[in-house]
Design a protein that fits this description.
The protein has helices at 15-26, 41-46, 48-58, 60-67, 81-105, 157-160, 177-188, 208-220, 310-325, 354-361, 408-420, 425-430, 452-458; strands spanning 6-11, 31-35, 109-112, 115-119, 122-125, 128-137, 141-143, 169-173, 192-196, 224-226, 231-236, 241-245, 250-253, 255-258, 262-264, 297-299, 339-341, 347-351, 364-371, 385-392, 398-404. With 459 residues, the protein is of the alpha/beta class.
Length: 459
């Protein structure tokens, strides 16, 4: 007779939890998964997938306008927001079914409800108590909102994906990737958008050139950039809301959406009570094997607040199951992870930002190219792009690559391989470009930007 009901109980059926659970199950472990909402998690149901679908659709008005430069005669186009949300939800239902099948085909038992940890080997769900040799926490994160008077009138990205009607005017609060993505989405579908944030430019923490270029390009597209301030209170109005800003401005809009941060979804999970060490923001502290301070309890994905990206959670899930259930010790590698922001224009980035590289290496070489995408040369579209390479001066290794512009996300995936392989600037220079493309800029940049000291002398 076995000591526990299961070898593994996973709380949370998002991308990371599902990958870990189904692999463990395929390797012969007896596995149960507990999910409070629906299998699929943030990425599939409330994040990457539905957001990217809305991004795709939001590009069409601009593309129709650009088509005139290529000789296409177009008339008025109308959009059916209700139809969009319906078709988006149909796709999410399909993906949810795939996740269910992945688990069931691996022999994983599914439980629905809020799982809470009772002790290092016991999880309660509903009126049941289940035991396991190991417990895996994969509950992800959840949007947070500040304590501002009237905040109950605001929505988050969760609700923004399911609005019954498109707002004619929306205030988006925040400057991170979720904020800039939704600002672009709503603007593309025709909404008037005010992007309000505390910093001086969007995407705080990203490379400074990326921030500067994206801020300028978003403004070109008609997004009202309101920097260096935040709402101090929100009031209900006849149209929707009044946002009273700290700079004295008042914005009347149909909706106000906050995208000012996400927090690990550990509240009420019982982790601290059983001795699991948490950080100040509630994330689970783990070692390189994703093991918490309680040896039988592990955690992965956004709940650990390492790198909050779906592919990272999936990689962590694979390493977890390979190590513990396939006798193949693997720990996730969090260095040089490529990522994208599906803003308009999009951003792709891998490796270090310039300020990070200067701090780590001291002497660096910086190469920057700004350009107008060839796609727009026959149009009135003023959008411009930027590409940037950051090179360690001593080793000549390329330690950072950044792009703003058409196809940035697709291009940075390939560049990410080169940087992961520790390619040098000479390797980039020796690579023949594909012409005519934007991607070739990464292998044709030859002129270094003057360093800070030289720039000051020149001034």
């Amino acid at each position: 007779m076995t000591k526990y009901d299961y070898d593994l109980i996973t709380i949370g059926a998002g991308s990371g939890g599902v990958r870990a659970s189904r692999l463990a199950g395929s390797y012969g472990a007896k596995v149960a998964v507990i999910e409070e909402v629906r299998e699929g998690g943030t990425c599939v149901l409330r994040g990457c997938v539905p957001k990217k679908l809305l991004v795709y659709g939001s590009h069409y008005p601009e593309e129709v306008e650009d088509a005139a430069g290529y000789g296409w005669k177009t008339g008025r186009i109308d959009h059916d927001w209700t139809r969009l949300i319906e078709t988006k939800n149909k796709e999410l239902d399909r993906l949810h079914g795939i996740y269910v099948n992945l688990l069931e085909n691996a022999g994983v038992r599914r439980y629905h409800g809020r799982g809470t940890v009772v002790d290092p080997h016991t999880v309660a769900v509903g009126d049941k108590c289940l035991t396991a040799d190991r417990i895996l926490i994969a509950v992800g994160g959840w949007p947070t909102m500040p304590d501002v008077p009237g905040i109950n009138h605001a929505i988050t990205s969760n609700e923004a994906l399911d609005l019954r009607e498109r707002p004619d005017r929306i205030v988006v609060v925040g400057s991170g990737y979720i904020a800039v993505e939704f600002a672009g989405i709503f603007r593309g579908y025709g909404s008037e958008v005010d992007l309000v944030f505390r910093a001086d430019k969007v995407l705080r923490g990203f490379d400074e050139d990326v921030r500067k270029v994206l801020s300028a390009e978003m403004a070109k597209k008609g997004i009202n950039i309101v920097a260096n301030t935040l709402p101090e209170r929100i009031e209900k109005s006849e149209a929707g809301v009044h946002a009273y800003l700290k700079n004295g401005e008042v914005i009347e809009a149909n909706q106000i959406m906050y995208a000012t941060g996400r927090a690990p979804n550990t509240k009420g999970l019982g982790l601290a009570e059983v001795g699991v060490e948490l950080t100040a923001n509630g994330s689970v502290k783990v070692n390189r094997w994703s093991q918490s301070s309680v040896p039988s309890i592990y955690a992965l994905g956004d709940v650990t607040d390492r790198i909050n990206l779906t592919p990272v959670a999936i990689a962590e899930g694979r390493c977890f199951s390979e190590t513990l259930y396939n006798d193949n010790p693997l720990s996730p590698d969090h260095d040089d992870v490529p990522s994208a922001v599906f803003s308009q224009p999009p951003v792709g980035t891998v490796g270090l930002a310039e300020h990070e590289a200067r701090e780590k290496y001291g002497a660096i070489d910086v190469y920057v190219a700004e350009f107008r995408p060839m796609k727009y040369t026959l149009t009135e579209n003023p959008e411009r792009g930027m590409q940037k390479l950051i090179v360690d001066q001593v080793s000549q290794r390329v330690v950072g690559a950044h792009m703003v512009g058409v196809d940035a996300a697709e291009i940075i995936q390939g560049i990410g391989i080169a940087i992961k392989m520790k390619a040098t600037k000479a390797d980039f220079d020796a690579t023949i470009g594909v012409h005519p493309t934007a991607a070739e800029e990464f292998v044709t940049m030859r002129d270094k930007r003057p360093g800070p000291q030289k720039a000051r002398v020149a001034d």
